[in-house]
């Protein structure tokens, strides 16, 4: 049994829950999903998902509820996190916006809404490291990763800029992998090591 915590402050909580259940099922793993809105739940989770939404509001709530410190401890213990869109912004080292209190989980800097506003949303076939077929990435008011640290692995680029990265146990994407029926990003973030062991 894998206990997956979805930070349920904002964003596509049910879609992420469905995606990680599908990824777990492909590996014969039952997944219990816990929606996290208060402190005290993160320490019981094996994996965490940090969905999109509004990054300033998310960061404020994580700090106020004490969830942010628990997420940092989760990563320090080597447990995996998938941070998508606004979740990537919150997980970054620097959001280039003083209103966002970042968690400094990913050694990257980001530019919020760099791909434009809601009307500029788009879907693109993305070549992701290790995937045989392109991933149908959905970009909605997506951030751009400006700078990456030396230890950060770039998993995918769009228009010459990184849009998916891995830094230790943390995977961050500028797009919304949960908005498709394709659970390969969740598989990459949480179950890849199981596949290697098998």
UniProtKB/TrEMBL annotation:
Active site residues per record: 85 (nucleophile), 176 (charge relay system), 178 (charge relay system)
Pfam families cross-referenced by the UniProt entry: SNO
Residues that coordinate or bind L-glutamine: 53-55, 112, 140-141
Domain of life the protein comes from: Archaea
UniProt keyword list: Glutamine amidotransferase, Hydrolase, Lyase, Pyridoxal phosphate
Pathway: Cofactor biosynthesis; pyridoxal 5'-phosphate biosynthesis
Gene3D superfamilies: 3.40.50.880
Catalytic activity: L-glutamine + H2O = L-glutamate + NH4(+); aldehydo-D-ribose 5-phosphate + D-glyceraldehyde 3-phosphate + L-glutamine = pyridoxal 5'-phosphate + L-glutamate + phosphate + 3 H2O + H(+)
InterPro entries documented for this protein: Class_I_gatase-like (IPR029062), PdxT/SNO (IPR002161), PdxT/SNO_CS (IPR021196)
EC number: 4.3.3.6, 3.5.1.2
Sample GO molecular function, one term: pyridoxal 5'-phosphate synthase (glutamine hydrolysing) activity
Function: Catalyzes the hydrolysis of glutamine to glutamate and ammonia as part of the biosynthesis of pyridoxal 5'-phosphate. The resulting ammonia molecule is channeled to the active site of PdxS.
Subunit and partners: In the presence of PdxS, forms a dodecamer of heterodimers. Only shows activity in the heterodimer.
Similarity comment text for this entry: Belongs to the glutaminase PdxT/SNO family.
HAMAP family on file: PdxT
Protein name: Pyridoxal 5'-phosphate synthase subunit PdxT
Source species: Halobellus rarus
